[in-house]
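Bumping my old thread because nobody answered last time. Still need a sequence for this structure:
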């Protein structure tokens, strides 16, 4: 390779790396806009920096500098003649509101995980990891902030109908469990919709289950309850007709044992519905997945390390369909169907004993 070509390639790669750094900074700008309500103010009406700051109740000088970052990055539009700023409707739908398209809450993941980078760096050198307890309660809150919107819009109308016959089964009155339920919003939504069925959510996080219980009480649900349980010790009795795992298996210290426990806890005609990240178990194939860099990085800084912290398997977020199918078969599931979910990031595994 000629020296001038090497220089050109290096410069091109340096620009790519700097664009990644820029993305990191802009992620923090999005977090600022979300936390301070600036996106909400901009979505309602255009304005000068003075007007926007006044509506948001913020310092104009900070707002003006923040506007410089989000304008030059193409997030906010600036009209020079009137010196006004506006948020296009197509951008506002992704950065405001309680709908699932609002991805602004996910910006908090970056700053939260960055706090744990020194410990993860140490784990690279010495092994081990960062226990899940050290990520709480912030991780609990940010996961709730993101997934609550998704559940509200797609759980009853998207995820559940993706499994043939599942809504009818829930409507008829069955025993249901959710392993790794977090703040329990999915459980509570289902309990409200399917009043003949009984629901229990299991999780390690006492803070998350406290929120789940408070919400169930506020919703006046008599058919939903929550229990602090390490699901690697999930009892075989009583058995359940349906067991859910929403994006929780790959975080487990011993995911193989958790799957075996789930299998034993199912009634003979029971159904295990596992929603997890869409991966292939093949790095070469994952290169065509636009979500892969995010989830491999998220795994490095959270999902992998919380497992390895306790000497676990370290399955990782991108364990993928091939590995999942093998592990489900090893756990005793004789039939596994994989269907698309309402989100392109996820797959739905429909598993029978």
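Sorry it took so long. Here it is:
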């Amino acid at each position: 390779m000629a020296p001038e070509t090497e220089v050109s390639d290096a410069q091109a790669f340096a620009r790519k790396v700097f664009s990644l750094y820029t993305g990191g900074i802009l992620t923090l700008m999005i977090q600022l806009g979300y936390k301070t309500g600036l996106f909400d103010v901009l979505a309602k009406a255009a304005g000068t920096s003075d007007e926007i700051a006044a509506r948001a109740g913020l310092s104009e000088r900070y707002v003006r500098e923040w506007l410089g970052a989000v304008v030059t990055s193409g997030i906010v539009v600036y009209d020079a003649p009137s010196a006004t700023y506006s948020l296009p409707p197509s951008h506002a739908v992704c950065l405001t509101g309680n709908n699932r398209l609002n991805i602004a809450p996910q910006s908090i993941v970056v700053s939260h995980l960055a706090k744990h980078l020194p410990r993860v760096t140490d784990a690279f050198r010495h092994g081990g990891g960062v226990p899940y307890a050290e990520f709480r309660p912030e991780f609990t809150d940010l996961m709730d902030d993101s997934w609550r919107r998704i559940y509200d819009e797609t759980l009853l109308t998207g995820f559940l109908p993706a499994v043939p016959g599942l809504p009818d089964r829930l409507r008829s009155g069955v025993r249901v469990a959710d392993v790794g339920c977090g703040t329990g919003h999915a459980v509570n939504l289902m309990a409200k919709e399917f009043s003949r069925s009984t629901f229990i959510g299991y999780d390690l996080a006492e803070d998350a289950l406290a929120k789940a219980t408070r919400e169930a009480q506020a919703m006046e649900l008599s058919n939903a309850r929550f229990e602090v349980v390490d699901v690697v010790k999930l009892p075989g009795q009583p058995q359940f007709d349906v067991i859910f795992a929403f994006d929780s298996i790959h975080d487990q210290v011993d995911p193989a044992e958790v799957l075996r426990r789930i299998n034993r806890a199912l009634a003979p005609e029971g159904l295990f519905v596992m929603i997890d990240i869409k991966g292939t178990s093949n790095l070469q194939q994952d290169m065509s997945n636009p979500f892969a860099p995010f989830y491999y990085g998220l795994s490095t800084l959270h999902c992998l390390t919380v497992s390895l912290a306790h000497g676990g398997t370290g399955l990782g977020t991108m364990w993928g369909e091939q590995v999942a199918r093998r592990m489900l078969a090893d756990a005793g599931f004789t039939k596994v169907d994989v269907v698309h979910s309402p989100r392109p990031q996820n797959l739905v595994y429909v598993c029978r004993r």
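Residues 112-352 form a domain with the Rossmann fold fold (CATH 3.40.50.150). Let me know if any region looks off to you.
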